């Protein structure tokens, strides 16, 4: 019986510690759409030799979305940044750009482009398109 008491005591002490440990970071969902799934590969935005962000394309609720997540390592070593996310149609037409200052994540607002070939685009700038000197990255094309 004594061993069961020890196991119960250890388990009771471990539960608060497990609750306090943060889990794996999960992307939120875009405004107005509660269920999306990633399509295609993840692209990485590298600025001055450091990975700044991940860029992904999602589909859901009848739309395509671009999602950009600024990595914690970049956030902890920079006091400010600007980022944008957009959907690119047919390789060059930028749609649906959303930008922010010091944002951890940016979702584009959703482009009605499920029947077209699209990519997610992310860049370190203020938009509405990437300008000269800004670093931009696209995911693979999804049709």
Structure commentary:
The protein contains two helices and eight strands. The chain has a single domain, classed as Sandwich (Immunoglobulin-like), CATH 2.60.40. It starts with a helix and ends in a 5-residue tail after the last strand. The N terminus is likely disordered. The chain is α+β, with helices and mostly antiparallel strands. The protein is globular and about 40 Å long.
Gap between N and C termini: 63 Å
Could you tell me the number of beta strands?
Answer: 8
**Strand content range:** 35-45%
Helix content: 10-25%
- Biggest sheet record: 4 strands, antiparallel
Question: Judging by the overall fold, what is the CATH architecture?
Answer: Sandwich
How many structural domains are formed by the residues? 1
Count of separate DSSP helical elements = 2
The parts where pLDDT drops under 50 for at least 5 residues are 1-25
- CATH class descriptor name: Mainly Beta
Structural class estimated from helices and strands: alpha+beta
Compose a concise summary of this entry.
The chain is α+β, with helices and mostly antiparallel strands and 143 residues long. It has a single domain, classed as Immunoglobulin-like (Sandwich). It has 2 helices and 8 strands, in the order H-E-E-E-H-E-E-E-E-E.
List the helices and strands and how they pair.
Blueprint: H1 2-20, E1 37-47, E2 50-60, E3 63-70, H2 72-77, E4 82-89, E5 93-101, E6 105-107, E7 118-123, E8 136-138
